[in-house]
């Protein structure tokens, strides 16, 4: 499973793990490109970071600009036809894309190659359980090579979020919300994530695992120094390795099960060629919303998503800056602005978008869910 170097055979899923921090990342990235050679010259290349919302770099929510800068600098030396860096953030509304790029440092890391992917779109028929067509960023479909740059994080709904989930961002804002309102529970949403991923499978994934997130990711968890860069020619295999490092069997992650069944990648670590130091992270904390406590956790998770129990979410007024990101991002309009935003539980579909996207971490669990959060 773990090897010193990769074999010459190119179709096997390969994952490389490098020790790294943001100071030395510029030295690590050329090594990654040497392991996964692609014909860059004359190609149109899209770099797709994780730009979830308007979070500053030190929050560790979005792909670090140092990684983006190093990838751009390497590609500049390879004479491509075009380099584009861009994403569709979860936070919606006029000017949000540019604001997120600025706040996250991604604009600076992109060194002039940043583009708002929400402006130029294509409506395309898709093979999906939930919808007939989806609106996708044109740059994604028209690029010769896509390089995916996700973060190493947990996720309240899908348990982990890495390479596969990051490609959900090829959908423009309103489409993400529309699919969310149809595929609401964790199992359906996991299937939707895989169905979006297979629309444009990236050629290369380089994961920012220098600083990862544990607990209630993808934005309200705790930062964890992992000091790794992970790379792969297969995003599903890379996420399987990430799950293992978090202490979770890849087979327990619904979207990984579905992706493997759909033939998108291998999740059995014994069948993945892995190079570099593979270690489980001691005491890594998973999110509240799944079986972190075995059967009890699984039962709690099921209860969360039943029609009887919606999330108990409350805005912490002292922290709220009334930016209205939560109101703009709720796919079903379940938040109303009284003095502060307030969740209408009769409309809420338990997607946690408001919780994920609040830039001030001002939305929190309350009631018995807060209790579960504290003890899990
Ligand atoms: S809770 Fe307040 S700070 Fe957070 S997104 Fe909503 S309006 Fe903005
Ligand atoms: S209120 Fe929050 S959790 Fe409920 S549907 Fe809206 S965004 Fe999702």
Structure characteristics:
376 residues; alpha/beta; Alpha-Beta Plaits; 14 helices; 31% helix; 21% strand; binds iron/sulfur cluster
What does this entry look like structurally?
The chain has two domains: 274 residues, Rossmann fold, CATH 3.40.50; 82 residues, Alpha-Beta Plaits (2-Layer Sandwich), CATH 3.30.70.20. Helices cover 31% and strands 21% of the residues. It contains 14 helices and 16 strands. The strands form four sheets. Strands 1, 2, 3, 4, 7, 8, 9, 10, 11 and 12 form a ten-stranded mixed sheet that branches. It has a two-stranded antiparallel ribbon with strand order 5-6. The chain has a two-stranded antiparallel sheet with strand order 13-16. Helix 1 packs across helix 2 and helix 8 crosses helix 10. One iron/sulfur cluster binds next to helix 13.
Total DSSP helices:
14
Structural class: alpha/beta
Determine the N-to-C terminus distance. 32 Å
Percent in strands: 15-25%
Number of domains: 2
Low-confidence stretches are: none
Oligomeric state, counting identical vs distinct chains: single chain
Shape verdict: globular
Could you tell me which ligands this complex binds, including any ions or cofactors?
iron/sulfur cluster
Write down how many β-strands occur, each being a DSSP E stretch of 2 or more residues: 16
Q: Indicate the percent of residues in helices.
A: 25-40%
CATH classification class of the largest domain? Alpha Beta
